[in-house]
Structure formats: structure tokens, C-alpha cells
Amino acid sequence: MRRYAGLASAEELEKALREIGAERYHNLHPFHRLLHGGRLNRGQVQAWALNRYYYQSRIPMKDAALLARCTDPGLRREWLQRILDHDGAPGGREGGEGGIERWLRLCEGLGLDPVYVGGETGILPAVRFAVDAYRHFVAERSLLEAVASSLTELFAPGIHAERIPGMLAGYDFVSESMMGYFRIRLTQAPRDSGFALDYVREHADSPESREAVCNALIFKCDVLWAQLDALHHAYVLGGGIPAGAFVPEDMTGRAAS
Amino acid sequence: MRRYAGLASAEELEKALREIGAERYHNLHPFHRLLHGGRLNRGQVQAWALNRYYYQSRIPMKDAALLARCTDPGLRREWLQRILDHDGAPGGREGGEGGIERWLRLCEGLGLDPVYVGGETGILPAVRFAVDAYRHFVAERSLLEAVASSLTELFAPGIHAERIPGMLAGYDFVSESMMGYFRIRLTQAPRDSGFALDYVREHADSPESREAVCNALIFKCDVLWAQLDALHHAYVLGGGIPAGAFVPEDMTGRAAS
């Protein structure tokens, strides 16, 4: 324990953060290996997209929770870009499409009713708990930790670059137009994570605050990992689908009692 | 959906609540069937006791969150008993032992270091997220929903009555003195759940509020179920132990990368 106590500089901090990503980011999770390798069936991919929708839907809320406690107008102005990216800009269609709309298009392309997805009824409770934990973390911890918990985006471009060709090659029910969300994140994520990394390098100015930054990233990796564990358990390993959660057509009859 | 919309009376509400318990309480979970049937190994039982400690440790905090928002001194006075039961009364040893101490004795009897358990480092992230969701629910929802979310205790005596002889018969490493927590809950839980049931029968005075009570109990069943899903996934089905979580001696080398 306390593996990241005593970091003496911004350089040591960044090295530790990259090490955490290399060890704990959810690209390593067996469910993602199955997803990207074309080894899931359509119902399992639907379950993933549906549950990940809940994560997408809460991202702008957690970003708003950060704005809501931030006294620095400059930081608010930078951070606002994230909400614009996910929700779209004011002005309806003129404001441009947001990431949540793109995610719903992916869900629809996979055969899910967007009204069902947006109604959030079939989400796995464990996914809901993990995502809500992220929102509470951002609202309750220090501003530095709230910023640091976004740093999984440092590792996102790699997973998207693997996911797009993997899913297109692996599934005849996935088309290029459904990959829109990921293509755009390839440029958005590096911009956001670059800003957040600069921020924590500058503002974490003691070994204690650098350790808190590391722990915030570990927490966030846990949030992502727990979502995949829940999907893997319910929809791949046969652990049973919790009552009320989405049952793919090809798994009817396999829900938990 | 909306299965519990339109409940017209306290009798219909109570019937619905008992139905929810019969369908969703965690006595039905496969992990509990394994635990009570003597079919887990010592490391798996340790993992259960360790993770359940986190739940035990947060119960008085969620009860305090209820007190913290309750303007009725009478309700506070009744509800305070729950904190006394779990933490013990003021006055140290003179105040009597609390449930958390009893749970630590169970952990110690199973071969876990109580300092390690109390340090909360090995807890599965999914268990942490589920338990914290319960605490946030009690702090944020209506007082009626906060009270209602305790109603899983209606079904607790049954599970304890099954667990005590099941674990004593099934495991040579479990002794009578380790079952102290459950023996005492056999009388505490019916008193608490009787009070909470009377409370929701009286205060849920519309179909809408009765539905909210049902949904609060469903939420709480999800909280308990998700904890067992996480244990089942990591320690039984081979889904991988998340980085940082407890690794039983007999599972060394099986942790996730």
C-alpha cells in the first residue's frame, strides 16, 4: 500500500500516472478483449452499449458538478468544453451533435430502441453504482482530485484506435456510421487529457497531493473496471442477469430468479 | 415496468413489499447458496466476511445520514437504536459490544487480521460502490424512501436462521462464538423492520408514495445483490480479482493483471 507516497516532482507524478494506466486501465479487461476481438454475440454487444450509455449520460453531470464547485473562471471555461462535447452546444441541431446523441446512434444501430436506452431501465445495478460513485467523487473530493479522476482519458485514444477496426472487422452488425462517437473522441480525448495532465502537474505541489492525484486515477480505473466486471459476470460468464436488467433476445430464460 | 404503480392501501403495499423480498432478496443469490451449503473454501469465506465488513461499517453512517435530515425527535429516538446496536453505546466496554465489533470477531476467527479488515484496503471496488450508493440514497431521497430502504430487514431473520446452522455444519473453521453477530440480529432485525414497516404503512398515503416505497426496497435489494455478484465473479467464477483487492492465500497468482 502507499505505493505512490513520496513522489517528489511533476515528472515522477506523470510517470506514476502512466504506470497506473498501464496496470489498471480497462483495455486490459477480458470483456474488452472479447469485444474488440469480435468474440461476443449481438446481444452481448447490445448489453455493453446499453450499460455504457449510462456512463455517457452521467459524464456531463459529473463535469457540471466540477463547474459547480470551481471558483476559477478560467478553469470553468476550459472545462465547459467537455459538456459541449457530450451534450452539444445550445441552439438545437445548429449547435452541433453531442457525444450522447452519437452513442444513442450506436445503440440504435445495434438494434436497441433509443427510448428504452434513454429510459435507463435495463441498466445493471452495479454499473449504476459505479457510475454514480464517480459523480459523487467529483462532487465531494478536492478540486484537484476531481480533475485527476478524468485522467483515464490519457489512455482512451489507444482503446478507441483498437476498438474501431476490431469491431468493424469482427461484427457484421457494426457499420462505420456507428463508430462516430469513437472517431471524434480520438481528437477530443487527447486535448482534454492534455489539459488535465498539465493542471495536476502544476497544482499537485507536494508528495501528499501527488499521492491524492494517483489515488483519484486508481479510483477512476476501478469505476471503469467494475462496469466491465458486471457485464462479464451477467452476460458472458453465466453469473445470472440481475432482476430487472436487460435480457438479450438470445438469453431469454437465463435471467436470475 | 411500473409494476407497483396504483397500490391502493397499506395492505396492498405490504403485500407488494413481501413479494419484492420473495423475488429479489439476496438469500436467492447463488453465492449465498454456496456459502450456506458449506461449498466454499476458507479463502472464499474470508473474502465474503471482509467485503461484508465494508457494508457493516457504513450502516451506522447511513443511519446517521437519516438522523441528520429528520426533524421528528420521535423518529430520531427510535432510529438511534440502530446506531447503538452497530456501534455500541457510549461508555466503552461498559456500553456493551456493537455489531461491528462482533463482525470483526467473525473476521478474526476466519483468520483475517482485524487491522487489515478495518483498514478497508482489500474491499472489492464494486462492493464499495454499492454500499456507498446506499448511503447516498438515504442522504438524498425523501425521508420515506430512506426509511423504506431499510426494509430488507423484513427478510433477514430467515437468512440468519439458515446461515448459522449451515455455516456451523459446513465449515470446520467456523465456530459458535463467530456466529454472535447473526444470533443477535435474529431479535434486533424483526424489531427494526417492524418499526419501519409500520412507518411506511402509515406515511405512504398515496399510490405514488407507495410506489416510491417499493422502488426503495428494490433499490436496496439491488445493493445487496450487487455485492454478492462481485464476490461470485471475483472469487468463484474466475472473473479475476480486481487490482488491489484481497487475494486469498489459496488464490495467489489468480489476480487480474
UniProtKB/TrEMBL annotation, chains A, B:
Entry-linked InterPro entries: Haem_Oase-like_multi-hlx (IPR016084), PqqC (IPR011845), PqqC-like (IPR039068), Thiaminase-2/PQQC (IPR004305)
Name of the protein: Pyrroloquinoline-quinone synthase
Keyword Oxidoreductase assigned: yes
Keywords, alphabetical: Oxidoreductase, PQQ biosynthesis
Record organism: Marinimicrococcus flavescens
E.C. no: 1.3.3.11
Thiaminase-2/PQQC domain mapped to chain residues: 15-229
Matching PANTHER family: 4-AMINOBENZOATE SYNTHASE, PQQC-LIKE PROTEIN
Family the entry assigns: Belongs to the PqqC family.
Top-level lineage group: Bacteria
Pathway it works in: Cofactor biosynthesis; pyrroloquinoline quinone biosynthesis
GO biological process, one term: pyrroloquinoline quinone biosynthetic process
GO MF, one annotated term: pyrroloquinoline-quinone synthase activity
Function recorded in the entry: Ring cyclization and eight-electron oxidation of 3a-(2-amino-2-carboxyethyl)-4,5-dioxo-4,5,6,7,8,9-hexahydroquinoline-7,9-dicarboxylic-acid to PQQ.
Reaction catalysed by this enzyme: 6-(2-amino-2-carboxyethyl)-7,8-dioxo-1,2,3,4,7,8-hexahydroquinoline-2,4-dicarboxylate + 3 O2 = pyrroloquinoline quinone + 2 H2O2 + 2 H2O + H(+)
